[in-house]
Amino acid sequence: MPQKIQVLLHAANLPPDRLASVEHVLTLVIRVEKNARPQQTDALEAAATAVLAILADERSTGEGEWAAAMTAWQDRRIRKVVRRARGAEWRRAEALPGVTVIQGTAEVRVFPPVPLDDVPKDLAKLQVAGTDFDQPEPPAVPHPGVPVIWINPTLQMSSGKTMAQVGHGAQLAWLALSEAARKDWSAANFPLAVRKANPAHWTQLLQTDFPVIQDAGFTEIEPGSRTVIAEHPQLRR
Questions:
Q1: Which keywords does the record carry (predicted)?
Q2: Domains of the chain and CATH, by start
Q3: Considering the entire predicted model, what is its pTM?
Q4: Residues 8/9/12/14 CA torsion (nearest 10 deg)
Q5: Beta carbons of 170 and 191 less than 8 angstroms apart
């Protein structure tokens, strides 16, 4: 087994007491080639879908090889880091165990969580900066019945920061769903949309019971800021 894969799987091989006692991080890597940058909405939707894909992956549940690490990660702060890669960097990242999602112009690979000190070097050395993307045309109105992750219109966040936040939103929606609803969403390949709410709509969403993300405020925004709200049809009351 190549050394880089041994490092990635190290978290799953830790003793249970060690595994549960350390903070884990889930890494998402977006492909950003020199002359082929993804569009903003595609990047956000790919990130949210990637998080759902790894949550539903058979390796993340039961006796799966990632299950212990996924449990340890979700028992603490669901920390996510978004990095970018191109060329050989992307090929090295793609060789590590994970799940790749393609959404329009965006390609995102998500990796099982590992302790903060055990992030594989081929991921740890990737840049966090440089993940600001454009949206040449306004995104279409979401189809009725499609889950929507709404972004707080009052906050200024980089694309990378927003990708992590919509990933959080997708995850909380997943956890709030019934087992049957999760299976249906997974079977349909996780249809969803990510959109910025207008101020009036955001105020209305805050009055609902949909999952809402409050950020710890370690980067870019104030602690406790409400960043996204996940509106899933199966969570309407």
A1: Hydrolase
A2: 3-124 (3.40.1490), 148-235 (3.40.1490.10)
A3: 0.90
A4: -80
A5: no
